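Q: Structure for this?
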Amino acid sequence: GIQVEQSPPDLILQEGANSTLRCNFSDSVNNLQWFHQNPWGQLINLFYIPSGTKQNGRLSATTVATERYSLLYISSSQTTDSGVYFCAVFLNAGNNRKLIWGLGTSLAVNP
Amino acid sequence: DTGVSQDPRHKITKRGQNVTFRCDPISEHNRLYWYRQTLGQGPEFLTYFQNEAQLEKSRLLSDRFSAERPKGSFSTLEIQRTEQGDSAMYLCASSGRDRGHTEAFFGQGTRLTVV
């Protein structure tokens, strides 16, 4: 089945720093989503990005589908950015429809 | 649009008891998914519905687990005879026809602790 790998597993930043999170996937996919899981456990949609580049405020994402990777950029990080960032790809084959997840990048932003 | 809603947010139960969780999807979404997440892991797929039909169940879903979506709107997930290994966050998501059902939106989750 499809494998999703995220790196780095953990990241500690000083407030104001920039960072890049990476997601590699092993097969062609219909969709890729980036989520932020806050300390209370809720998964917040950041980007729906099967290909190309999108920006939303201090966050941007790029997916290069042909090379099977996606990057999430966080600029001028804030303490509220802390949490776990997940990459998930959508498997859509017959009745087999689900998100396949990486293990996440745990980000801590220190004041 | 109020988003995906789950109830309760937290549940503490004694081993051997039954528990039931509820999920209300985004109103126009006809697909609904249940996932389970344990500490330090990504969510794991449990089951999904298209309208009221349950189309796929993971092998993680033992005979003690059952999910329903009787009218194609809200869904319930029941765990019978709970075990300590059932302690986890249970997440519900829904998706709509936009983007071919490939964009999922999640609720706040129900955190289950079995003592």
